[in-house]
# Entry
Amino acid sequence: MTKQFPEGFLRGGAVAANQYEGAWNEGGKGISVSDCAKHHFDVDVQDYKAQNEVTTKDIEDALKATDNSLYPKRQGADGYHHYKEDIALLAEMGFKVFRMSIAWTRIFPNGDDEQPNEEGLQYYDNVFDECLKYGIQPLVTMSHYEPPINIVLKYNGWYSREVINLFVRFDETICERYKDKVKYWLTFNEVDSIIRHPYTTGGLIEDRFPNQNFREVIFQSMHNQFVASALATKICHEKIPDSKVGCMLTKLSYYPYTCKPEDVLQQQDMRSTYCYSDTQVFGEYPAYLLSRFENENIHIKMEDGDLEVMKKYPVDFVSFSYYSSSCVAKDDTGLKKTAANTMTAIKNPYIPTSDWGWQIDPIGLRVSLVELYDRYRKPLFVVENGLGAKDELINGTVDDQYRIDYHDAHFREMYNAIYEDGVELMGYTSWGCIDLVSESTKQMSKRYGFIYVDADDYGNGTYNRYRKKSFGWYKNVIATNGACLFED
Ligand code: BGP
# Structure
């Protein structure tokens, strides 16, 4: 019997508007938080905190800046001008699904505009038409690190209750406009990341909350996002009856550094991520989060009906990003550290790391799938996974055998999770299926794609596209629905 992934398995790739599109001030688009995210060329790429700390002065400088090379997301991979060519390349690989986000600022440039920007709406109509022309299903993220900068400066980000209504206006507009083109939706990208980078996810800057408990500000903003996510789910289901709405979490899989019980207990730190997806899946705050609020003297202002709407509109499936696993220990003094997605981790001496320090652990993906399926009993979707590497373009291609090996190993573990562990997996979208600007370091040189984009970290280059070696390999994986992985 041929070993294959399930019939109808949605395999493809993912991008985010703020890292892919560029054209930051074209087509009527407003300025987003990511357009003001500076690339710190002089900071260690593994120092996530230093790379992503933002002050009000940084924003003021960014809004006055004339040198766009300091703000690589303004150019992205210039997807805005290349999307037709790019989607044709995705179709050549046989993509069944293309994950992307709708930039709030293309639709409502300031977030609080009374009327939507028709040019922005038309752009995404064109993108979806291009996908559907090839039989590619769009999978749309409503918020992927793209709040309008006006929401930060005028409303203090998601801390303001008013932003729920503004986000609902955005949701009602895009769900109505694209109801015949988009069936799969995600509400907030890596919903838990607001605690690790409150600026990009929640539009929060600590110096704007003097004399306030900033953790309380973050959790208050999180509550507003929970309400907005539930209302977005309601809008999708009412406007698009066969729609499927997912939450999206950062799957940071923690291993105890030793079998000491206190190291094993440290794995409970995963709850600092699960508490968000638990709330969106179960439609209520988990007891351990409420007790944390109590113990930390955090008071969340809720309005009548909030908890009811959260309970009534939980998500339909659980999606997540998985890049690497990490170790945890009660006492990490003297233990080697390494970078991970949006954080710094204890290094696992048994597994290799990427050029950016992220640990490569395919079995960790299987562990993650089993953990999440056992926890939620809802269909799962891997919507980000991939290897950021220094690719070199030689004679019009890139020999990225290392990327093929990475994906090959991860796909085998996904197969095991499905057929050995009984996990219900809807699909898989590799992160950065085409090279784009890295979220954490703002680099083009941290490349994930099956397609190479000729641009450097300063925005210089032709922006021409080139097929890497992995392009043909992935095309075969899709064509055989994974059977080629198991052929001798
Ligand atoms: C996740 C984001 C993606 C992407 C990915 C890779 O946190 O959801 O937008 O950026 O990380 O991380 P990086 O781009 O920092 O290599």
User: Anything to note?
Assistant: The pocket of 6-O-phosphono-beta-D-galactopyranose is lined by residues 16, 19, 189-190, 321, 341-342, 384, 388, 431, 438-440, 446 (CB under 6 Å). The mean pLDDT is 96. The chain has 17 helices and 14 strands. The CA atoms of residues 227 and 305 lie 9 Å apart.
